[in-house]
Design a protein that fits this description.
It is a single chain. The chain has 579 residues and is α+β, with helices and mostly antiparallel strands. It has three domains: 180 residues, no CATH class; 98 residues, no CATH class; 136 residues, no CATH class. The protein has 14 helices and 21 strands. The strands form seven sheets. The protein has a five-stranded antiparallel sheet. It has a four-stranded antiparallel sheet with strand order 8-7-11-12, with helices on one face. The chain has a three-stranded antiparallel sheet with strand order 2-16-15, with no helix packed on it. A hairpin with a 4-residue loop joins strand 9 and strand 10. Helix 1 packs across helix 14, helix 8 runs antiparallel to helix 12 and helix 9 packs across helix 10. It is flat and about 145 Å long. About 3% of the residues have low confidence.
Amino acid sequence: MSSVSGVSSSSATAASSKLRVTGQASGIDVDAAVKQMMSGENAKLDKLKQERQYTQWKQEAYRDIIKDIRDLRDSSFLSDSPDETNMISSKSLTGTSVIAGSATSSNSSQSTLVNGTSLPGAATGTYVVTVNQMAKTARLPSSALKATTQVTTKVNGADVINNVVNDATTTSKLSDINSNMKTQLKFVIDNHEIVLDNSNGDKTVNDLIYAINNTKDSAGNALSDNYKVGFSELNHKVIIETRSSGAEKNISIHNEGVGLSGLGIGTSDGTTTATGQDAKLTITAPGESASEVTKSSNTFTIDNMTYSILKDPAATLDVNGHPTPYTETLTVKADSKGAVDKIKAFITKYNKLVDKIYTMANGKKDYDYKPLTDSQKESMTDEQIKTWETKAKGGILSNENELDSLLNNMRRAFTDKVQSSGLTLQDIGLDTYGFDSSSSTMEKPGQIKIANESKLREALETKGDQVMNFFQGSPDESITDSKQKYNNTGVFQRLSDTFRDNAVTADSILLKKAGYDGSTTYYTNELTKQLTKEDSTIKDMAKRLNDKEESYYQKFSKLETAMTRLNSQASWLSQQLSK
């Protein structure tokens, strides 16, 4: 709990530890006299401490705002923001939903064959998807591996050595899988030469996988950038494959000597290759004729519709051993409820942040309430102290230019037209609050409201691509003029940029002002520097006051000494006169 204390208590403690003469001879209450003489000086120190407390409160208030800004940004504007609050993902503002023909129940729209996700702008109606081939990686698996180990048992007192064969694991020795691998293993994968010395026969499957994954070519390119190597515990196989699928992906392994042939990958001194394959399907969009589609991935987007192939036609073969194509229907219907609910939830959180910043930036300071000194707090209850400090903190950030600028940029993010979308805030049923004639003030300054929910639903369902551009649009790369870039940037990206420029990076406005925990600005910001300077000033003044207080006690001590002598002389004189 914050407080402001004068130097008198500390200096008095220091003084009491020294030998001081009380006012027995002079009749003066020395402590009371010194306290009275120091009161004006201590008031100056208390004022310095109050100013220091104001600075600390200001920093705490700024950091509280920074935290709230970061929280909203992290939950809404990052690629890894949670799905339920993410406002920049392509599916977050869709005004449609998809029902698959193969959905397993009436409560689920999910397909077991092809998943469909409608994005803003997707045409409503039924899509017919026939999958002929699934996209696959280029893949070279080993044989199902077995490891042979020797186990010694005693039979009639004699040692008997038996060979035990088990399924291989990642800890199995390569030489136990194939005795020919007890040598220097050398092979080449995509111009990456791998050498693993297994002359002692102690290398394991794990060692082999590690050696492959950590190999780099002469240019420093890691093999693991384009290929992945792992071990299947289910099938007991080492699998080497490309990270991406598609017919253009291939893998080539050349064994120099035994190499990987001991695992069933290629032949000794031979080269083996594998090629990936594309997904091949036919899509009939609503009102359109069938179109043949070839894609390198099983997940792709065409005309604002994302498709994900789930089942491999090769999993079921016909009587001739050929893959069996299958067909899925995906019905897209108008359904903006999820997007509307998401926008509502965001606006609620956004308005809460705006209200907090506006209240802090426009609060009125009550000069009757200042930071409490320790002596003042001694006569107050905890609740009284809390109430007092709440009032004392009022208006701590009033008239701060940084906050005024922040609020203005946040408001403009919504109200400035997004040229690429062709829409305004009012076109999609949103608006700002207006002037309240009853109180002659702006109602909820800077906040956003849903003025017409029906209009918002209609815009999401019929102008989905425009709504997406309004909120999520990015300027074309050909645009270099900063003003034109801004004019073609969506609302949420504008807000994200504003939050970044004010509360995220080390050179952001509020972090340079107040700093933030976990940032390099925590100790280098403007207010921390001010606090350090104020601490130094307080320390210097406290020392001066302590010295001054001590000098007063020394003067009273001399006065007491003089009075004692005078009293002694007067007593002697009185005795002499009475004889």
